[in-house]
Write a structure and sequence with these properties.
Distance between the termini: 25 Å
Shape: globular
Helix content: 40-55%
Strand order of the largest sheet: 1-2
Order of helices and strands: HHHEEH
Number of helices: 4
Length: 153
């Protein structure tokens, strides 16, 4: 209820970020709804900044920092710190899975520690891979599957 009250104060009767931290079991629908709510919230913050309302994203009362604390606590409660690192990577580095990694040079360490450039085939369209070379965390669904399989508490 606290989050709904907070969002009502921020946006009127149209909440932009709602997370129920009382869920003990994660399911895909909850995970997707949480991430999509956060994405919409960030988009709304950006829109406010476009209109010159910088106070919502800067300073000690920054709403995006508070929202990130909420979502990170939610993710950490289900998947630990490593889970939050993957979700954060997906949101910020992978740009919600929309980043085309093939335009960047990518390297991997050989056994002797020397870095070598990775082949630029379709392989590099994705930014993260499992131990078998399969792409992971390239969409909300694949992120959820990875977290559930590897990091579920």
């Amino acid at each position: 209820m606290l989050i709904k009250e907070l969002s009502d104060k921020v946006t009127g009767s149209n909440p932009v970020l709602t997370i129920n931290l009382n869920y003990n079991n994660m399911n895909y629908e909850l995970f997707e709804k949480t991430l999509m709510s956060y994405k919409k919230f960030l988009s709304n913050i950006d829109a406010h900044c476009d209109f010159g309302v910088e106070s919502v994203s800067e300073g000690p009362h920054s709403l995006d920092n508070h929202a990130e604390e909420l979502i990170s606590s939610f993710i950490i409660s289900h998947y630990g710190e490593d889970g939050w690192e993957w979700v954060s990577w997906f949101i910020y580095e992978s740009q919600w899975g929309e980043k085309d990694w093939s335009v960047n040079k990518t390297y991997k360490a050989k056994e002797d520690g020397v870095l070598e450039e990775v082949d630029k085939g379709d392989y590099l369209k994705y930014g993260a891979f499992d131990e078998n070379g399969n792409p992971i965390c390239y969409s909300i669904e694949s992120l959820f599957r990875y977290l559930e399989k590897e990091l579920k508490k």
